[in-house]
Amino acid sequence: MVEISTSILSINKEESIKKFYDLEVAHTDYFHIDVMDGKFVQNNTSSIMQEYTNIIKQITNTPLDVHLMVEDVKKYVDEYLVFNPNRITFHYEALKNKEDIYKIIEYIKNSNVKVGLAINPITNVENIYEFLPYIHMILVMSVVPGKGGQKLIPETLDKVRKIKKYILENEIDMDIEIDGGVKLDNIDEVKNVGVDIAVVGSGIVSATNYVETMKKFKK
C-alpha cells in the first residue's frame, strides 16, 4: 500500500481550515507543504505555506512533509524546523557542491527530523546515489517543479525503477516519494514501479468526497 502525502498548494485560503479537517478525517498520511521562494522556481508560496503550516499544527497531529523548492536552503530549513515536521526535503539542484548537500543533510538529521533529497525530471539519478545511505527519502519530481496541475512525465517512472533497484541491491533502508501529476488513472502504475509515498494535490483536493477518494488512492 502506498502512503499519500496530500499537497495543500491548491487550497483556497477561505476554505483552508475545513479542507485541512476533511483531509485529516480522510486519513491522509501527510500534509505536503510546497515551499517556493520565487527564485529556485517561478512561483512564491513562502508566506501562504507558513500560514497554512501554522494552522495545521494547531488543529491536527497529521505529520508534515515539507518540500523546499528554494535557493537559500538553510534559511527555510530553520523556518520549518520550528513546526517539528516529520521530514524536510530539499533539492539536489539548489546547492552548488556535494559538501553543502552533506552539511544540510546532517543539519536536518541533527535536529531530529527526517531528511529527504529531491531531484528534478532532467537530473540523472546516478548523481544522487552517493547520498542515499545518509537520507531517509528520495523525492522524484515527475513534473517540472513550481506549479500544480501538470501531467506526470512518464520517463520519471524509469528513474523510480532505477532508484528502487539500486537501494535494494545495496540494502539501503529508505523511502521513494513521487511528486507531480499523480491521479487515480495512474496511481497503479506509480505503485508498481516501487513508490512508497505519492504526493497528490488536485486529485484529492478537488474531489467531492475526500474519504472515498483517499481510499481509492490507497487501495
Structural features, described:
This protein is an alpha/beta fold and 219 residues long. It has a single domain (3-218), classed as Alpha-Beta Barrel (TIM Barrel), CATH 3.20.20.70. It is 36% helix and 20% strand. An eight-stranded parallel β-barrel has the order 1-2-3-4-5-6-7-8, surrounded by five helices. Strand 7, helix 6 (187-192) and strand 8 form a beta-alpha-beta unit. Helix 1 (16-25) packs across helix 2 (46-59). It is globular and about 45 Å long. It starts with a strand and ends with a helix. 41% of the residues are buried.
CATH architecture: Alpha-Beta Barrel
- First-residue to last-residue Cα separation: 7 Å
CATH superfamily: Aldolase class I
Overall SS class: alpha/beta
Number of domains in the coordinates? 1
Could you give a short description of this structure?
Strand 2, helix 2 (46-59) and strand 3 form a beta-alpha-beta unit. The radius of gyration is 16 Å and the shape is globular.
